[in-house]
Design a protein that fits this description.
Helices cover 48% and strands 19% of the residues. It is α/β, with parallel strands linked by helices. The protein is globular and about 70 Å long. Residues 109-225, 409-535 form the Response regulatory domain. This is Response regulator. Keywords: Phosphoprotein.
Length: 540
């Protein structure tokens, strides 16, 4: 029966390729005939969900007028059926847009650093089966660079690696995590007292000798992840900047807004963002970036008035609540802080530099709530950024305001039309649209992608590429080499789609600079969760 299922999926792919490659519109009768065939054949060979999906779409087809269909309309119409065809366990088919079925799941992220590809792939698979998201690294240097961008719940490091000792990586890692608790687990074939002692002296949180019992390793990792979660719940102040964490923003806003409402007092809020912070990290390193954040937060606290509250909103963004303060007064306070901050010198390797910030101020009140207040302040911040930075912009009146969104480009490069269609729909309709202006394009192979010059356009926007490792014209590895040779290659986040057996391809992809890999067949919910973790990296 399995060979008939494979044959059916292959026939679906061929039909889609035929439609997608054509330049003319498709006659609706062809579409109906295609669905009718699936509705009859799929249940017969044990693919009941595909049959149900085809039946539902046949009924929907009868409700839609028009005989000719564009390629785009066909893609959108068939997207839910293709999701079932690719990932039968993922949905109970109701005919809704694909991405509406998935709420992005915030899984705990494990960073895994090991240059043994066999163990790396095995551990990644097993930990992901246990509900973690795992980012794998074969090189310590790349892992340390990514560490600042990924909010990891735990790091697992192999001690004996060819390029750099895991103990050296641990030492740097702990130096970087001076302000944060991120558990580190060391694994090693060397179970001597000296190695264990050295690990603990460098502040490892656990040491697990090889060969290890997998169940025990998972229990020990989960225990540390839970410990980190519990500590995070208890912490009111951000570990680096010592201002309140975002978790305490909502109750603080509600408390102040209710009080200001009762007392008929003005209330303002400001969103602050350090200017060009990414270039500070890129130029001077993340440790210097951390010092800038801590220095700014310290100056902010020293210059706010009694009763004003500062929160770390995310990355280099801060939010300040100003009770009993109108917008103009809040703007004056922030202008005074901006001038003092720009006079403050920072140093790195003997080089001195100065930093500025931009801010947006908005009136706040109980009726509009936190969400609309943040949107208004964010909108004002955007104007400050657009008009030169190092300034404070204010909006007086609250009202319906569109949230400001960054541009984010997605390229899906895969010769499988089913994967292209379902991923395009997943991204286009996902909750990512609330934060980003998404531009999603698909390409049927690496050659078409490079010939389109997509990778050379809009070099200042963040770009995300889902890249199939095996394609007929030009494979993903060749495309990855081109991407990583570009001057603006840091703007690209690349996820490779690979076959589970291609260990060499996975190792090569990671060494060439892939940010993550996903083995086929993948679950749609899994790839979305993975994308959300990587989005943090580029949106911070």
């Amino acid at each position: 029966m399995e060979k008939y299922k494979a044959k059916l999926l292959e026939n679906i792919r061929k039909q889609l390729q035929s439609w997608y490659k054509g330049t003319e519109e498709i006659n609706g009768k062809e579409l109906y005939k295609f669905l009718h065939s699936l509705a009859g054949t799929a249940p017969t060979i044990g693919m009941q969900k595909i049959g149900d999906a085809a039946n539902l779409l046949m009924k929907r087809y009868m409700e839609i007028p028009g005989e000719m269909w564009s390629t785009e309309a066909i893609q959108q119409f068939l997207s839910p059926l293709l999701a079932v065809a690719y990932d039968e366990d993922s949905v109970d088919f109701t005919g809704e847009a694909l991405s509406k079925k998935y709420a992005p799941e915030e899984k705990d992220l494990i960073m895994l650093i090991d240059d043994d590809p066999t163990l790396l792939i095995y551990l990644k698979d097993e930990l992901e089966n246990e509900g973690f998201t795992v980012m794998a690294f074969t090189e310590g240097k790349k892992a340390l660079k990514a560490f600042f961008d990924l909010d990891a719940s735990c790091v697992i490091i192999d001690i004996h690696m060819q390029e750099k000792s895991g103990l050296d990586i641990l030492e740097e890692f702990k130096r970087y995590t001076n302000f944060r608790f991120i558990p580190a687990v060391m694994i090693s074939v060397d179970d001597t007292k000296e190695t264990r002692m050295k690990s603990y002296q460098l502040d490892a949180d656990d040491f697990i000798p090889k060969p290890f019992d997998l169940d025990e390793l998972i229990v020990r990792v989960r225990r540390l992840v839970t410990k980190k979660k519990n500590m995070k719940e208890l912490i009111m102040l951000d570990e680096l900047t010592r201002v309140y964490t975002r978790k305490h923003l909502s109750p603080s806003f509600l408390r102040i807004a209710q009080q200001m409402d009762r007392e008929h007092q003005p209330f303002s809020a400001a969103m602050i963002d350090l200017d060009h912070f990414k270039s500070i990290n890129d130029t001077y390193g993340h440790l210097t970036g951390d010092r800038v954040l801590a220095g700014f937060a310290n100056l902010l606290k020293q210059n706010l008035r009694t009763g004003d509250l500062a929160f770390r909103y995310g990355g280099e963004e801060f939010l300040v609540l100003f009770p009993r303060t109108d917008v103009n007064t809040a703007k004056q306070v922030l202008n005074r802080i901006l001038n003092r901050f720009m006079e403050h010198p920072f140093e790195s390797d003997g080089e001195s530099f100065r930093v500025s910030f931009s801010a947006g101020v908005s009136a706040a009140c109980l009726a509009e709530g936190l969400e609309n207040t943040v949107k208004a302040a964010d909108h004002a911040l955007y104007k400050a950024k657009q008009t030169g930075r190092a300034k404070i912009t204010a909006v007086e009146a609250l009202g319906p305001v569109e949230a400001m969104r960054k541009n984010l480009r997605f390229a899906i490069v895969d010769d499988d039309p089913i994967i292209r269609t379902i991923l395009q729909d997943l991204f286009q309709s996902s909750s990512l649209n609330e934060k980003f202006l998404l531009n999603v394009q698909t390409f049927e192979d690496g050659l078409q992608f490079l010939q389109s010059d997509w990778h050379l356009k809009d070099p200042h926007s963040f770009s995300f590429i889902v890249l199939d490792g095996m394609m007929p014209e030009m494979d993903g590895i060749e495309v990855l080499k081109v991407i990583r040779s570009l001057e603006h290659q840091e703007q690209f986040t690349v996820v490779m789609l690979t076959n589970r057996t291609s260990e060499e391809d996975i190792t090569t992809a990671l060494k060439l600079g892939a940010d993550d890999y996903v083995t086929k067949p993948f679950k749609l919910a899994e790839i979305e969760s993975r994308i959300f973790h990587l989005i943090k990296k580029i949106s911070s």
